[in-house]
Every structure is written in structure tokens, then in C-alpha cells.
Amino acid sequence: MLRHANVLHSGYALGGQLGTTPEDRLAVIVPMFHCFGCVVCVLGAFCYGATLCLLPSFEPGAALRLVEEEKCTLIHGVPTMFSAMIAHADCGRRNTSTLRAGLAAGAPVPVPLMRAIVEKLGCKGMSVTYGLTEAAPGVSGTAPDGPLEARAATIGRPLPGVEVRIVDPATLEELPDGRSGELLVRGPNVMAGYHDDPHGTAHALPGEGWLRTGDLALRDPDGYLRVVGRSKDIIIRGGENIAPAEIENLLREHPDVVDAAVVGVPCDRLGEAVGAALILRAGATLDAAEHTARLAGRLASFKIPEHWLQVEGFPLTGSGKVQKFRLRERFGTGKAG
């Protein structure tokens, strides 16, 4: 349950982070049923008098055409959308040079993808924001004029008025900078609770205004936050806890890899084994031995994937997030398409 004040805070803060003005024209390519569309896009624009340019549904060619025809200056989306736009035949043919900034959210943005958004779409001020519906959704973000590496590798600093803590998920004891733990959030963005669900509300809101996000993060000495995974996505292999995000980020550095998703695959001996599904550039084929060798010097041996799949695309939710439970099923059936 979100109050009017919750959503207005997020829209105002995120629109302000991009320096939104009445001269801006925002390409809305995300669905309106989600907080990203109805709060970040709509209120982020309307709080500053900007114009909304909408699509009925996302399609990469249509999104490129929208930017060109409407001379859009801002664009918000999830990484899979930007990957699809960059891979589309019309990228480079459509004039997207009017883009000055935008927000990517919903999943990590690999450095190569961030660089491609800047160079191929011409959106030099592309930023990253992190949030969840229970926080209406804005929690943190990077500045559009910040270093490109920080805009890709981190989720920035907390938005104005928002506090964060990194805690031990079991005890809720605060952890020092540099240690990963569950991210807690407090501020005018935090929900009133879950409707007709007192048990769920009590777990998510443990007291003193704090919200448990369920995401695992760490804070750098300079205050930048980095998400390392979701507690429910953690792979437990022979008693070792493995965060998929660390492996995914390294896999995405390979020039043939468009995107990567890592999941736990059932294993009789270890409980779970590490499985990696890769979307590769056109014409590329999966060489598991090459990827294994490349990771060998950069990851602990127990984190290196033992199961590999080349897929044409990931199963996604309506808001563009990877449905990892469905991806796990593909490993179980050997289904690679």
C-alpha cells in the first residue's frame, strides 16, 4: 500500500536527479502497470512539466522510431530493452541524438551495455536507479554526469531524504562498509504495508520505519551502493553461499555475450550446482570450456558454472525482469530455446 506522498517523493527525486525541465520529452517504453512506468516515468516527468511520449507496448524498432519522430530527450527502461534496441537493425539508422539522459533499472547494467547506450544510442547521461515497489520505488541512483564505470557498476547513492543500512539478514545487526548484507531502507518513500497481510507486513517492516528489501548489497567507502544479489536467488552449493550477480557481471564482459543469467541447478551431491544461461551475439556459439577458463583466475572454483545453456532469450516478467524460476526449469529439461 503506497501513499500519495510515497510516490510523489520518488517521482520528484528521480526527475530532479536527471535535471528534468518542461523542455524534456520522455520516451515511455516500460509498462504503465509497474511502478517504473506509473511513478518514475509519469510523476518524474509531470513534477517538472515534461512531455510523455508513449508506446502501446515495447518493441525495439518502435522504440527507436519513437525517439526519432518525437525528438525525445529522456528514455527510461530495463537493461533487456536497451540491449534489444542496440541489437536492432534500425539502431544507427534512426536519429537518436536528441537523447541526453535516462534511467536504467530492474537489473544490473553491464559496463559494455552502458558504453553501448552512450555510444550507439547517443544517450551520454544514461544513469542507473535502484528501487522496489515497496519503496514507491526510488531508493538510490547515479548522476547522469557521473563516471561511466560508477553508473554501471553501482546503484549510486541514496536519494534525498532516504536512509539505508546494510545488515546481517539473520540478526539485522548493522555491518561495516565493504561487507555485504541485506539492504534496509527508511524514508518518505516506504510503503504503509501489504494489504490484508499483517504477517508479511511485520516481516518487511521490522520497526522504526525500516523496510527490508531482500536484496544483498554493500556500501563503498565513498557511499556508493552495489547490489550483489537477492537473498532468494542465493545459490547454496555444498554449504557455500554464491551470489549470482558476481558471476553474471564477469560473464557479460565477454564480447560475444549479450546477457547472462546464473541460477542454482538441483544437484544430488551438493544440493545445488551453478548454471549459466547466455544470450550470445548473432553468429556466436557457446564455448563452455573457453568461458570456464576465462573465469578460473577471477572466481573461486566453487563459483564457476558447471552447467551451461545458450538461449535466444530469457523468460521475463511483464516489467522485463528475468524469471529465474523458469530459467531453472530449462536446465532441468535441457531446453535451450
Describe this structure in words.
- With 337 residues, this protein is α/β, with parallel strands linked by helices.
- It has 3 domains: 4-156, Rossmann fold; 163-228, Luciferase, Domain 3 (Luciferase, domain 3); 234-333, 2-Layer Sandwich (GMP Synthetase, Chain A, domain 3), CATH 3.30.300.
- The chain is 28% helix and 26% strand.
- The chain is built from 10 helices and 16 strands.
- It has helices spanning 4-17, 35-46, 60-70, 79-87, 111-120, 148-153, 198-204, 244-251, 288-296, 324-333, and strands at residues 25-28, 51-54, 74-77, 101-104, 125-131, 138-141, 157-158, 163-167, 181-186, 211-219, 225-230, 235-237, 240-242, 257-267, 271-280, 307-310.
- The strands form 4 sheets. Strands 2-1-3-4-5-6-7 form a 7-stranded mixed sheet, sandwiched between helices. A 4-stranded antiparallel sheet has the order 8-9-10-11. A 3-stranded mixed sheet has the order 14-15-16, sandwiched between helices.
- A hairpin with a 5-residue loop joins strand 10 and strand 11 (225-230).
- Helix 4 (79-87) crosses helix 5 (111-120).
- It is globular.
Low-confidence stretches: none
What's the total number of strands? 16
The main sheet comes to: 7 strands, mixed
User: Ends: how far apart?
Assistant: 38 Å
Spatial order of strands in the largest sheet: 2-1-3-4-5-6-7
DSSP summary: helix tally? 10
Tell the overall outline: globular
Beta content comes to 25-35%
- H/E topology pattern: HEHEHEHEHEEHEEEHEEEEHEEHEH
How is this fold's topology laid out?
Blueprint: H1 4-17, E1 25-28, H2 35-46, E2 51-54, H3 60-70, E3 74-77, H4 79-87, E4 101-104, H5 111-120, E5 125-131, E6 138-141, H6 148-153, E7 157-158, E8 163-167, E9 181-186, H7 198-204, E10 211-219, E11 225-230, E12 235-237, E13 240-242, H8 244-251, E14 257-267, E15 271-280, H9 288-296, E16 307-310, H10 324-333
Parallel strand pairs: 1-2, 1-3, 3-4, 4-5, 15-16
Antiparallel strand pairs: 5-6, 6-7, 8-9, 9-10, 10-11, 12-13, 14-15
Helix pairs in contact: 1-2, 3-4, 4-5
